[in-house]
Amino acid sequence: MGEDFYSLYPFTNKYCSYLVGHPQVLTSDLSFDISLYYGVARVQILPPRTLFHPVLPLKANDKLIFPLCNTCAQSKLTDRCNHSDSERALTGTWVTLELEKAVEIGYKILKVDIVWNFTEKSRYDKDTKSGGLFTEYVNTFLKVKQEASGWPTWCVTQEDRKRYVREYAENEGIDLDVSNIKHNPGLRALSKLMLNSFWGKFGQRSDLEKTEVVSEVERLYDLLKDTDETEVTNLRFINDDIVEVCYKDRTDFERPNARVNGSIAAFTTCHARLRLYEVLQRLGERVLYYDTDSVIYISKPGEWDPPIGDYLGDP
């Protein structure tokens, strides 16, 4: 069987905890008890030798993988691992929540280099319908998406429709407008894009190529002559008065982006992976395949299957 999580990233943005403010940058007298911290940490950690579903991701050879041995990962070895603990240990930066889960599963922290510890956090309270960094944003576009999806197939009678609107308000805290509930593929696609791409802007690279439409000769000269800081990659003359200039900042002169916060992006993917891991852990070796927000597994009579739901974060 195959199951997709319903809007997994919007779920994490709305319901999971997020850091607030500036971190304490800790570099000395650090505890191996990672639960004492809330933020991100650079550590050396030893995975268990046998684990069907590894917890921590690692970037190796320009790919994100989930290894139990660093040497095997870097060398792309697929044979039985006979490396020592020092050769197997992973070194990287992870969200502390993910490290806590790893330690619970059997990973062992060997060294803690640095911790960005945040003393403040924000999380949506479903009972009071308050809190959360991104709740208002998610609710705005989730309402549009849900209305543009039309009525569920089980909503046959007026009573069914009233029940649907009532239960959605109870579960998501969003009052759907009955007059707007109609199938609208374009509006649904747009609102879905706004929901799923939002968090990624916090982790956007600052070295991406930029495009500027130039109509002033002085500005064109500035871009062309400033070769120490920028590199012009392409020029396209639209007409006699307008030119499209593609350029990128040289590595040593990347301009900081005040809208970027890598920690927020890292927390989003961390929460999503932990949500997925809850299902993987219970399914065990019945899992055939999984990716960011879906699982394909063998369903057996009498054994646990992920419950199916209609709300954010449900399979």
Automatic annotation (TrEMBL):
<comment type="similarity">
    <text>Belongs to the DNA polymerase type-B family.</text>
</comment>
<protein>
    <recommendedName>
        <fullName>DNA-directed DNA polymerase</fullName>
        <ecNumber>2.7.7.7</ecNumber>
    </recommendedName>
</protein>
<dbReference type="GO" id="GO:0006260">
    <property type="term" value="P:DNA replication"/>
</dbReference>
<dbReference type="GO" id="GO:0003887">
    <property type="term" value="F:DNA-directed DNA polymerase activity"/>
</dbReference>
<keyword id="KW-0238">DNA-binding</keyword>
<keyword id="KW-0235">DNA replication</keyword>
<dbReference type="GO" id="GO:0000166">
    <property type="term" value="F:nucleotide binding"/>
</dbReference>
<dbReference type="GO" id="GO:0003677">
    <property type="term" value="F:DNA binding"/>
</dbReference>
<dbReference type="InterPro" id="IPR023211">
    <property type="entry name" value="DNA_pol_palm_dom_sf"/>
</dbReference>
<keyword id="KW-0239">DNA-directed DNA polymerase</keyword>
<dbReference type="Pfam" id="PF03175">
    <property type="entry name" value="DNA_pol_B_2"/>
</dbReference>
<dbReference type="InterPro" id="IPR043502">
    <property type="entry name" value="DNA/RNA_pol_sf"/>
</dbReference>
<feature type="domain" description="DNA-directed DNA polymerase family B mitochondria/virus">
    <location>
        <begin position="183"/>
        <end position="242"/>
    </location>
</feature>
<keyword id="KW-0548">Nucleotidyltransferase</keyword>
<dbReference type="InterPro" id="IPR004868">
    <property type="entry name" value="DNA-dir_DNA_pol_B_mt/vir"/>
</dbReference>
<keyword id="KW-0808">Transferase</keyword>
